[in-house]
């Protein structure tokens, strides 16, 4: 179909997934959907409850038939449906620890069922990164593990679970974000690996997901020197066209990671990054939560200008439109609408939690939750054991300013429970816990991140995540 038939501005707008504040759709979003906008990405601030979300998505559909309506629902620490209370599903690290692919399939089918019932048709999950770097600041418990084979088989199960209820999976972050020590929300991480290692480790889960029929794949704002040079993969034809499309043979929808992240805006800007990403091989551009309507219009104008100056072939926009149209047709065959309330989240969390030692009966328990700043991907999602230990006194403590003598005095004659998240990544947390253990070797430590560091000779529980069922499963073991 020719440029005049498709309409250049409509083609440009059709590549965008925009965001907006609030729990109702602004007039400009509805108007742009009528004019061909690709769709929206929703965040925690867009979601009050399931009924509100269903009303919102129905309003969006009323403007444009079947736009892409997406969000990040990974389960575990990264949730949008349950952003204000915490996810009812454990995340990937817990599922990888259990290593039962049928369980993973069931968990993701349940997540997909809830999404479908609320009108969501694309889930920016699962995370298929192989978390080979223990100090990774952005992946961690979002990964199924640090072994390519394990991550591959659970990525396939997650894709199958979501897509069994006609919610498109978006496997991320291609070509792999697991070997980084930098958060791409803040700058461009470098994955400095050989071609052989990239293919054997990072690419293995994506290859498996492609074979399993994933409907979309998300790019990573990471540089792989031998492949992309200094540029992030999101802007790299070598990564997206030559490797993903050519070598791996993927012909589904490629979605960019949020383009308002510092890795993009600090280097080429939002509009410039949008045009470059499309030229590299992306089909849908996730703009992230920060851009305003003025920014969106500037992005559309920038894409149109790139076509006019020849830096972005019109055929690339038409190819993207065809892929997105095919995805929308697949959405349209959806038959499942009812959420599955089957308790699979708690069942999975109970199987994942690991206990070392024998907990003593709790006596007037004092729980010290060592505060851990949330990552940008996670956001300020509630966590902790308080809801399942109503008889306990809960103290949330900053690790660097923790008053050890005062805490020990308060715990005199009482059971002491210390809750941490990713203590291996925070020296102050380790120092605080070690000081408490030295004085109270009878205390219990609950690690709600990755159990990489642990104090010796104490009762220790590893939950592999900080979602609600992870906390409940831990408390059940303490109080049984």
UniProtKB/TrEMBL annotation:
One of its GO terms (biological process) is peptidoglycan turnover. PROSITE patterns: GLYCOSYL_HYDROL_F3. GO terms for molecular function: hydrolase activity, hydrolyzing O-glycosyl compounds. Keywords: Glycosidase, Hydrolase. It comes from the Bacteria. Pfam families: Glyco_hydro_3. Belongs to the glycosyl hydrolase 3 family. This is Sugar hydrolase. It comes from Nonomuraea glycinis.
